[in-house]
Write a structure and sequence with these properties.
By secondary structure, this protein is mainly alpha-helical. The chain has 3 helices and 2 strands; from the N terminus they run E-E-H-H-H. The protein has one domain: Arc Repressor Mutant, subunit A (Orthogonal Bundle), CATH 1.10.10.1100. Helices cover 58% and strands 8% of the residues.
């Protein structure tokens, strides 16, 4: 499923960017451009990153 349709970035790719050190929307945008078009996806990408951060911190 696409997270960002403007840039053709899938949710899977957002997870991969998190795994590779991206922690913010800007980090992901720098990596693949997601969120830098219409902005519709910003909430979804922020949710994904927030969910991963919460999981990562509770696992630590
Ligand atoms: S859907 Fe991501 S910037 Fe438009």
């Amino acid at each position: 499923m696409f997270a960002c349709i403007c840039r053709g970035v899938t949710e899977e790719e957002v997870h991969e960017h998190f795994d590779n050190g991206c922690r913010t929307l800007d980090d992901v945008g720098d990596r693949c451009g997601a969120g830098e078009g219409c902005g519709t996806c910003i909430e979804r990408i922020t949710e994904i990153l927030g969910g991963r951060s919460a999981t990562a911190s509770s696992a630590a």
